[in-house]
Amino acid sequence: MPQPPIRIRLTLLYGTLFMACGGILLGVTYLLLEAGLAERFQAAGALYVTKEGGITPVPEASLDPLEQDLRASQAAGSTGLRELEEGYRAVALQSLLRQGALALGVLTVVATFFGYLMAGRVLRPLDRIAQTAQRIASRGDLAERLAFTGPRDEVTRLADTFDTMMGRLEKSFQDQQRFIADASHELRTPLAINRTLIEVALRRRTATEDTRRLGVSLLTVNERNERLINGLLALSKGEAGVADCTPVDLAALTRHTAELHRPQADAAGIGLRLELRPATASGNAVMVERIIHNLLENAVRYNGPHGWVRLATGTAPDGGAALTVENTGPVVADQDIEALFQPFRRLAADRTDSERGSGLGLAIVRAIARSHGGEVTALPRKHGGLIVTAALPRWVPPPYRGGHRGTGAGDTDSAR
């Protein structure tokens, strides 16, 4: 059973403590009143008092009603006196318990209500910290800070510690991205030089057949390294986040990307099926196109003979924009799905020794989707292949401004 929120638990704690303290106070009052009544009855039962060394009767007019009743009962006999004492004591103590319990109940309700308000006020800074952490987790904006102002208490120290931690995380993340970008950029130049030298050597008339075969092999290795570097750059940019979001017509962008890949699919004997419905996402069009490109490229590349790829766009269950890429291909185990989204992981090998790609395609897709505040999920097909769904936030026009709306596409066509 899930525990109630901490505010409710604090409120219940305040109410319980107040009721316990009130009950203890009522019990102490009960005991003191009981002892006081016993002393009062004992003093009021005396028929005579000592005055100036003699014994004289107490005047009837100087007695209160209780003492007058006690004197009358004493005159009637000791049994009547005890019964009257017990009756008065019982009435007084029962009245105290009844009225005290009623007052304690009302005050407990009032104290619980004010305890709820006080708990909310105390927990408000913590709620602000939690909301900021949620925004950072959903948007990936490590530059956001609490900048909490107030008295130097435990909450302020917690907020300052949170800001310090986020600053160190942001710096570490930026250093990592800068290293990947710089290293990839520095490696591009020698690879370009190598490619040029190999191509020049292959064009020479004096090149032997062995030299040409070696040159082709070197070009293949060089192209593979270039794909790896480009993938690392794309992964670095995808994890960096999106600064300015614009409306992206997901259906139109998917159609455009599919047409670019159609020659490659036709050459491999793979049919493309488009089921495009209107879907306007919020994000960067170039990065969203990279998502479509990588998913479609993987679906065509890791397919089977005479297979097919289905691309569908529409509205996700949460109201966002969704792209689904389904393809035939080899059977994938459930436990291998998550590994496909890790860099340099494939179905058949863990390293980058494949000539078909760099092993960064799905890792880049997930990084870009999460930087947009979305997510990518994959499910294995029963007869082989994958169903990959990329969910992106829906475009919402900013208030008091003219929002852009994508044209969308609402047709369904099929091609083999």
TrEMBL record:
Gene Ontology CC: one annotated term: plasma membrane
Places the protein is found: Cell membrane
Instruction: Give the EC number.
Output: 2.7.13.3
Indicate the transmembrane segments per the record. Answer: 12-33, 101-119
Can you give the residue ranges of the Histidine kinase domain? 182-396
Ranges for domain HAMP come to 120-174
Gene3D superfamilies named among the record's database cross-references = 1.10.287.130, 6.10.340.10, Histidine kinase-like ATPase, C-terminal domain
Catalysed transformations (reactions) = ATP + protein L-histidine = ADP + protein N-phospho-L-histidine
Protein name, as recorded:
histidine kinase
What is the native source organism of this protein?
Streptomyces marianii
